[in-house]
Write a structure and sequence with these properties.
6% helix, Immunoglobulin-like, 343 residues, 2 helices, mainly beta, single chain
């Protein structure tokens, strides 16, 4: 599993700390999380798309995710192209809610193979492409088709450039009654960021199953929004002290504002293992203190996910329950710096 998706899974798990605990007051309110590995305007980026919900939520029947206007998408990859990894975690409803995690890949597939499922899930067999998420769960291989389209007709083309849709089989049709609570998949070499630096607001429509049935419940459909900031800046410098000690310092800014309490992870180029982690202070600054035996090279990485108190954009007006959740997420990595110890 690539480091970016591994860190994102950990961050989503933190965001969904209550997912495996639950609350008697829980409602059906999944979250959409969208993390762009680079936020630079008009640059191709890897995307991390995440679905997060509570253990007491009804199972999800369908997700519809809308990329904001300005994003460009290359959907012409040939069949068989692997475009990313997928990680899903949840509980076995027929196994005393025992947690599970499943890893796999996302691959471009043949549209004709999934024509029947496309009609059932999306209402049409006409799509630009289909991606297939492959995971193994309780010894059974599962394949989830994900239909992706450029948005060209109203009203969707007034707020979205790309539509991503997939349907999930509820606990009544999965091994041991498996219900997905967190799903994260990355998409590589497909999306290009909008040309401007304004924040990008993604929308998602979440359709649940009616409790205890295999039937979708349209009246309970909700909307979630996800903010991907247009400007993220992460710096790293080296200050040499005596006795072979160096300070690795930097600052995190989002939309020009310092970000406090964000975890920054330190890595060296000689290993993929994380060396240390630190939190940013009120001014967005962080520091690592290292004692070196010899010259070393370092970089730092940030993937942050958090809830927003309210939805930042007007609801689409499609979900009967309106917009119930909103998140913000961003990622950044510095270039490599060289640290030389001073005696």
């Amino acid at each position: 599993m690539k480091r970016s998706i591994r860190v994102a899974v950990a961050a989503c798990a933190g965001l969904a700390a209550l997912a495996f605990v639950g609350s008697a007051m829980a409602a059906y309110s999944p979250r959409l999380v969208v993390t762009t590995v680079t936020n630079k305007p008009s640059k191709q980026t890897t995307l991390l798309l995440s679905h997060v919900q509570d253990i007491n939520d009804d199972p999800t029947a369908r997700d519809t995710i809308y990329a904001p206007l300005g994003y460009q998408a290359n959907l012409s990859q040939p069949v068989g192209t692997t475009i990313g990894d997928v990680v899903a975690s949840g509980v076995f409803r027929q196994g005393a809610n025992t947690p599970f995690q499943a890893n796999g890949t996302v691959t471009v597939d043949n549209l004709a193979t999934w024509a029947t499922q496309a009609a059932q899930c999306t209402g049409t067999t006409t799509h630009d492409t289909v991606w297939r998420a492959d995971v193994t769960l309780a010894g059974s291989a599962l394949h989830v088709p994900i239909w992706v389209d450029h948005v060209t007709t109203p009203p969707e083309n007034t707020f979205a450039s790309v539509r991503i849709q997939f349907c999930l089989v509820g606990p009544l049709g999965t091994p041991l009654g498996a219900q997905v609570l967190i799903a994260v998949f990355d998409v590589e070499k497909v999306f290009t960021n909008p040309p401007g630096t304004a924040d990008r607001v993604w929308h998602a429509l979440f359709l649940p199953y009616a409790p205890g049935t295999p039937n979708p419940n349209p009246a309970a459909m909700t909307e979630g929004q996800a903010v991907s900031p247009g400007r993220v800046s992460l710096s790293l410098t080296v200050k040499r002290l005596r006795h072979r000690v160096v300070l690795l310092q930097g600052r995190l800014l989002v939309d020009g504002q310092p970000q406090s309490g964000v975890t920054v992870e330190l890595y060296g180029t000689s290993s993929s293992k994380r060396l240390a982690k630190a939190k940013t202070n009120r001014s967005g600054r962080y520091t690592f203190r290292r004692k070196l035996k010899r010259k070393a090279r370092f970089y730092v990485l940030v993937i942050a996910i958090g809830d927003l108190p309210s939805c930042p954009a007007p609801p689409l007006g499609i979900a009967p329950q309106g917009c119930t959740t909103a998140t913000i997420s961003f990622a950044a990595a510095t270039g490599i710096v060289t640290a030389r110890p001073r005696r």
